[in-house]
Structure formats: structure tokens, C-alpha cells
TrEMBL record:
UniProt organism field: Pisum sativum
Keyword Plastid among record annotations: no
Transmembrane segments: none
Keyword Coiled coil: yes
Keyword set, alphabetical order: Coiled coil
Name assigned to this protein: DUF7745 domain-containing protein
Amino acid sequence: MSCRNSRNMESSKRNIYSFKFKDPDLRSLRSLISQMHPVYRINFGKNYGNLLSILNQQVDHTALITLAQFYDLPLRCFTFQDFQLAPTLEEFERLIRIPMKDKPLFVGTDESLPLEIIASALHMDEKEAKDNLETKGSTKGFSLSFLLERAHTLLKAESWDACYSAIALAIYGIVLFPNMDGFIDMTAICVFLTRNPVPTLLADVYYHISHRYTKKKGLIACCAPLLYQWFLEHLPGAWVEQTDISWPQRLGSLRSEDLSWYSKEYINADIIFSCGDFPNLPLIGTQGCVNANPVLSLRQLGYPMEGPPEANSLEAFLLLDFGAENPSLFQQIKEAWKNVNRKGKAELGRANGITKEPYFQWVKERVQIIKMPFVIRTPIPLPEPKLTHVPIEEMEELKATMAKLEKENEELQTKLQQTVNEKNNMKWELERKEAQLQAHVEKFNKEEHKRKKIKVGLEQADHCLDTLKGQLRQTQKECQDNKHWWHLATKENKTIRDTLGAQIKELTNSVRQAKAEVDQERRLKKIATEASRVSPMVWEEKCREVRD
């Protein structure tokens, strides 16, 4: 009979899969953070949220592996005996403390990302970025050792913005989006540049668990510390502290009333319910796309669970390699995020966290279909405090001690408040003086810059002046030479003019004499011509006249 019962119990279980979660070596990164003064850790959080909390989170991997066995692949949630849990954008945003609003979405890795963009985000010059950007496999990126060495140098130099960016990128690549050990790949760099890791982190949780579930084994390469923090938020402390009981027994015996369901921060807040024409939430991770079903997480955000969700709101897809085989779906997902659909109190009802029987019944029917991974024979009760009987005398003494301690506590609280006020005043005064000092430094730097520019300008002006003086001396010399030659030319010109005048006069006289001779020749010719026309007697007479 007992064997038959054992076989029946085993048949009511579903298969257990061999999963592992990425467990990077974080000792060097944590050691670097431990060297930072608490004030600078707080300042780091102003720009990068709770990344240090995620980094320092100690993870019980057995708990996560056990949790993964409860994953309900078609519904994208963890299904237990009478309830379901599914991480949401709002919960991850609260844990990370990096707001999503008005920030770009990671939509894939750009291996050709310009160096100047990477260098600018890390507060380094392009040459340093180029010299240290390595190729590993099919991607580029920075080694963890380079970023840690750079951060350590900047920490000593108190160059905080550059130091913070190096640490943050290291956390992005090693903790949030772990891929290759000791290497921050281009995917992590691209997510880092968006300053919006939350949607990608949630996508990676669903994508990797869903993908590994289809393979029924393998490494789940999502951010394990974040998933573990999220799970602890809902678990009662007593369940976590019962180390003498195995995680399968603890999680297998969990019931709806045992959980801490939601934070007051979510009360009446609008939630991202769907995007574009998708009935649920299409998410883009570091290796592909997957859907999430916010309709199953309403109770975690303070809203009531009235009954079973509509079937179309659970429509599932798993897109590998960013839609290499279905690019149109990937394009639809990217377009959908341009139209985010939110719901709040008006659509979901008053925030009271109540779950009604129709929903419980639907979950129980779901459990009958998919079965539980572990069979718990005896529910594990929460440990109750033991009652202790104390004599009246001891009670009175305890009361007096308590009153005294309360008074001391009140005095200490007053002193603490005074100390806090003094600290705040000192901090404010320090910040004010630092601001003044910074203003003076900036003013001095500006004046120094102006002085250097003026000095350079004066040096250039002196050089130009010397050049002009040289040119002026050369011009003066040329003018003197030209004047000397002008005087010589003028004198020579006068001599030539006088010579030419005499020659012209002589020529003029010669011309006159020649002209007179020509005129005489003409007269003689005329006479000769006339003589040729007369008789010899007349000719002789004319000749005598001429001779006379």
C-alpha cells in the first residue's frame, strides 16, 4: 500500500531540471568599493541608484535554482500551490532605484558604436578608449582588470565622475548583464549608455529562464542578485531563516497568506500594462525578446486579483537572436515601445491587494495541469515565539529597567537628533564652502585661461611687430637706394637732354642748309628745263645771265 502511495505521489510531480545561475567572481570589485568613503558611496547612488546594493547582495543559489523549478513557462510566472509570482518593471525599478521615465530603450547591440561616445560616457580620451578596447569572440569590450585599475587610480585622484562611471560600467558588465567572465562586452556598454537598465534586466530574467526551460537544463545568465533580492522581498523572514529545512520543502509549502505581497510605494500607482498592439509586455533583452504578463502580477503592485486573466493577455512569444528568423516581429516590438499603455486605479480598482476565490480556483486548476516540482507531505508552519512565565518581582524590575532604558533612549534620541542636525549643518556648510571654492577655482581657471590667451596674443603681436619693423627697415633702405638712383637718373637725364638739344640744333641747321641746297637744285632744274625748250641763241643768253 505504501509503495502504491509513493508511486502516486511521484506521478503528481513534474520533472526537475538541472539549472545553474551565473555566479561571477565579485571579490575584486567589492574590495574596490570597500575603499570608498561612505559619503562617496552615497554620491555614487545619486547617479547610479542601488547598484552597490545589488553588487554586495549575497545570493543563495540553491534558493534560486529551487525557485526556477516552479517556473510556469507558458504563463511566464512562478506558480506555487495557490498563488503566482512574476517580477515586474515597477518592482525592479524600485530595487534598482534607476527611473525608466524619459529614457531610451536598449534595442540591440551596436558593435560599430563610435569611440567618442564611449569615451565621453567614461570621461576618458578617445586614444585611451581605443588602446584598451579589446576583441573577445565576436564582440568588443573592456577587461574588468582595466576598469578596476582605472577606477582605483581615479579614486586616489578623487576624480569622482570618471571613477563612478568606471565602477558602474564594471557592475553593468559583470553583475547586471553577465556574459563572459572578467569582460564587459559591447552589449553591456550599449545598455549602460541608455541609463535605463530596468527593462533589459526584466527581459533577461524571463528570456534566460524561458530559454533554459525549453532546453530543460543549462546556465541561466541573468542578474542573479537582483532576482534573489526580488524574491526575498516577498518571502517571510522566518522562511528564509529556517536553514535546517531544505529550500524545496520551504518553497513547496508556501501559501498565499504567507507572503509579503506589495510595498506601499505602489499603492494607486499607474503600471505599465502593455505596449502598442501587444496584449501584454514585449521585452527586449541582451540576447533576444520575450513577453511578460503584468496581469498576473497585479497583487504584487497592490491591486486586487478578481479572477482568471483573459487568455489573450497571456499570449506568449520567445524570439531568439533579436529576430534573425523573424525580423518583422522584432521591428513590431521596437515600434510598440513608442506607445506604452498604462493602467491605474480607474481601470484596475482600488488598491487593496485582495485576491478573490475565482482566481484561487483558477490557480489550483493550473497546478493540477502543470503539477508541482516537489511534494510536501507536511506543511511547514512558521515558527511561533515561545511563551515565558516571569515572576511578578522580576516583572516589576523589568518594567523599571524598561522605563529607565526608555528614558535613556529618549535622551539618546535627542542627542542623536542634535548630532544629526549638527552633522547636516556641517554638511551644508561644507557643501556651501565647496561650492564657493569650486566657483573660485572656476573663476581662477577662467582668468588664467584668459591671461594665457592674452600672453599668447601679446607674443604673437610682438612677433608681428618685429616682422613689420624689419619690413619697414627694408622698405626705407629700398627708398634710399631708389632716391639715389633717381638723382643719378635725373642728372644723367639732364646731360642727355643737353646733348640731344645740341644735336637737335645741329641737325636743324643741317636740315636748313640741306633744304636751301634742295631749293637751289630745284631752281636750277627748273631753269634747265626751261632752257631745254629755247634756241641756242637764247640758251647762250640765259647762260650769260646765270653767270652774271
